[in-house]
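BUG-462 | component: ligand-complex export | severity: low

The export step for flavin-adenine dinucleotide jobs runs without errors, but we want the raw record kept on the ticket for reference. Input record follows.
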Amino acid sequence: MSSSVLSALHEVLGSRGLLAAESVDERYLVDVLGNRGEPPLAVIRPADTRQVSAALAICHAAGRPVITQGGRTGLALGQLPRAGEIVLSTERMNAIEEIDPDAGTATVQAGVVLQALQEKVEPQGLMFPLDLGGRGSCTIGGNIATNAGGNRVVRYGMARELVLGLEAVLADGTVLDGLKPLLKNNTGPDLKQLFIGSEGVLGVVTRAVVRLFPLPADRTVALCAVADFGRVKALLRHARAGLAGDLTAFEVMWDSYYDRAVTLLGRAAPIAPGRAYHVLIEACGTEAAALADKVERMLQGALEQEIVADAVLAKSGAEIAQLWKVRDLAIEASRLLDPIVPFDVSVPIARMEAFVAEVQAATKAVDPRCDLLVFGHLADGNLHLAVHQPPDRPEAFHAIEQAVYGVVGRFRGSVSAEHGIGWLKREYLQHSRSPAEIAVMRTLKTALDPRNILNPHRIFLP
Ligand SMILES: Cc1cc2nc3c(=O)[nH]c(=O)nc-3n(C[C@H](O)[C@H](O)[C@H](O)COP(=O)(O)OP(=O)(O)OC[C@H]3O[C@@H](n4cnc5c(N)ncnc54)[C@H](O)[C@@H]3O)c2cc1C
């Protein structure tokens, strides 16, 4: 049966569009962290929506599972193939089809790399504001499928807020053309929202119209040392009031993270370690001098009111990059605790300090050697945690997950703030979603993909 599927796929995709098992490159098997999937039946590389539609119709008729891949930077193992699946890579669908500076929109194919879009619109004085560490590899289709967040959510929102129109292909090959560049379109349920954040289980995103914003004339970054969590919250209020719409990032690093990141820097730390929290504040504005003035006044006020114990303000692009470098060392800093159990959770800001303390206690109860590292997009209520798993106790991985997600559930948080459920967190979906919600999700899945061929067993346990 698989040979007839492969020959039908070859007919619609041609030799460039179909890589049979023996010629599948290693890169389709591994994610950015080096996690490995299983050998797929084949990799298909459609060139356009028409080919996606024809290929899915063939797979649907044959009941052959398909796993969609963008840049493979996803952190929930959702994109890695399982034995016998067909990988659908969007890598050839990488055209930026149109930029409309008047409307502030770009029409892109799903396989466009995030950084390529950012760099393409910049010379026109425009910005695509979604930004995250995987920018050099992740794709717009992957960003939409995972409803990616990242560094500027506090100002521009997540991917969901940045998509105006969407084209998606359903499991049976039906093309849903919702590629309208309209901000206002109240004509019944907004179907595009079904595909944003649904991690490819309801359809393959093929094209999108995304929002662009004026490129800020200037960007300023400050790093602040703060003594306790009450002052971190006070600093957020103070920065919001002082910078208003110019505040684009408010990233908080617990000392467990900061101390390790500055060790990795290999040069003098911007602020010496030794304080409980370090906060990276970014502001962007349309008028350079006014922005610098605003940020300096905000910082001055924070120092005078003793909200902040110490602060440095970047004076050049190079200094801005150096300050961001501390925060961008997240993966490397986490690896210092290897092997780790990683977490990407949301909790209300008001309860964050108590949450971290409970997580600490719960993981130490699993094993007193469970060291913890914490950082995150605090203004969005999003924390990333890495918990050391004692290497002589492999079973502790699961116990640590259960302990942390148990605390997340008690704090009415989310087991995935931005990375998604994928394969990794399926068991814990019920900590964040009620039985009724999960039942509705399954009903949608069955209605749109009755043969369960799209990203099967991702998000939901079998
Ligand atoms: C260093 C680093 C930093 C990161 N920082 C952040 C961050 O701050 N915020 C954040 O949200 N994420 C972050 N991520 C995670 C990751 O970059 C995002 O999840 C990204 O959106 C995934 O895009 P991708 O193209 O790599 O998708 P993939 O990894 O290829 O796929 C991810 C999921 O989306 C599905 N998918 C991909 N393309 C499509 C499509 N066209 N149609 C339907 N389904 C599709 C896949 O099947 C899979 O389930 C980071 C990753 C790294 C490595």
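Assignee comment: Attached the raw record above. The pocket of flavin-adenine dinucleotide is lined by residues 32, 67-75, 78-79, 90, 110, 132-134, 138-139, 141-143, 145-146, 148-150, 199-200, 204-205, 331, 418-419, 422, 455, 458 (CB under 6 Å).
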